[in-house]
Amino acid sequence: MTHDASKRHMLIVSHTYRPEAIVATNEVVTALLDAGVVPVFCEEDYTDFSTHVDMTRAAVLGTDVPLSDVEVAFVLGGDGTILRAAEVLRGSACPIMGVNLGHVGFLAEMESLDLGFTVEQVLAGNYTVDERLALEVLAEHDGQIIADTWALNEASVEKGRRMLEVSVGIDDHPISIFACDGVVLSTPTGSTAYGFSAGGPIVWPSVQALLVVPIAAHALFNRPLVAGPDSELTVQILPENIGPAVLWCDGRRRTELPAGSKVTVRRSHEPVRIARLDDAPFSERLVRKFNLPVSGWRGDRGKGVA
């Protein structure tokens, strides 16, 4: 289609693997068109949805519409879909409005039941944008760069076939050497994901920090560490390791790490922007997403319940 710079353009990131995603995509496309907004899809999604959605007035990102003209991205799915959208939007100022169609969906702002309300509020511009700390990730071996990438949730160094021997450092100072199944280098956003599963703390998204979480470390000092946002984290795969390790970024981008490789992580200059409709505290989301038991915490104190 011919690009019309006078119109508003909003990206939709979804997938055709689940019927509820197809229904939600149809609803958003219809609402945008009714409001005179052009729905935009990545080329792959445009092709996938062409048999499920009327795409005659939709546009293809990069071909019909430049990323710089996209106002906001509706992301329909779970955290994996939001991480895919973050890849697409990398380097732009476009915020992500996540609508959870998955299970926990910690990155999503809204639930699928609120889809109509969400679209209405975004169209009216009634949202704020949080900037989430992201990571720059560099992997080197024998003086050569083997990966130069990034992550929103975490970069994890994991064993291949055998347990790893690693040296962990912060700000160019060694902290500890130990054997382990891996090390998670996480952002506060990722602290509710892999880092949490590995035994790390939950860190509020507003806190600027970097986390180091060992996975099944054979060491007396195997506790998670929380470093400052300007710190530099390193994980060195010791030369005596048998077999390669693996670097994963957000569980999506994979790099093999030969013995002797070094992974360096620092705060990225490009944050990920998450759109929000309300100012509910993170503690409320934590309770809701993890279904934490809180009834009686205050109201029942007079009845002998702690």
Draw up the topology in text:
Elements: E1 9-13, H1 19-34, E2 38-41, H2 43-49, E3 59-60, E4 70-77, H3 79-89, E5 96-100, E6 110-111, H4 115-123, E7 128-132, E8 135-141, E9 144-151, E10 154-159, E11 164-170, E12 173-180, E13 182-186, H5 194-197, E14 210-215, E15 225-227, E16 233-237, E17 245-249, E18 253-257, E19 262-267, E20 272-276, H6 282-290
Parallel strand pairs: 1-2, 1-4, 2-3, 4-5, 5-6
Antiparallel strand pairs: 7-20, 8-9, 8-19, 10-13, 10-17, 11-12, 11-16, 13-14, 14-15, 16-19, 17-18
Helix pairs in contact: 1-4
Bin the helical content: 10-25%
What is the ordering of alpha helices and beta strands? EHEHEEHEEHEEEEEEEHEEEEEEEH
Q: In the CATH hierarchy, what is the class of the largest domain?
A: Mainly Beta
What spatial form do the alpha-carbon principal axes imply? globular
Mean pLDDT: 92
CATH topology of the largest domain: Tumour Suppressor Smad4
Summed up, the domain count is 2
Which structural class is indicated by helix and strand composition? alpha+beta
User: How far do the termini sit from each other?
Assistant: 63 Å
DSSP E strands, number = 20
CATH superfamily of the largest domain: Probable inorganic polyphosphate/atp-NAD kinase, domain 2
Q: Strand order across the biggest sheet?
A: 3-2-1-4-5-6
Proportion of beta-strand residues: 25-35%
Uncertain segments are 302-306
Level-2 CATH architecture of the largest domain: Sandwich
Tally of helical runs: 6
Largest sheet: 6 strands, parallel
Q: Which radius of gyration do the C-alpha atoms yield?
A: 22 Å
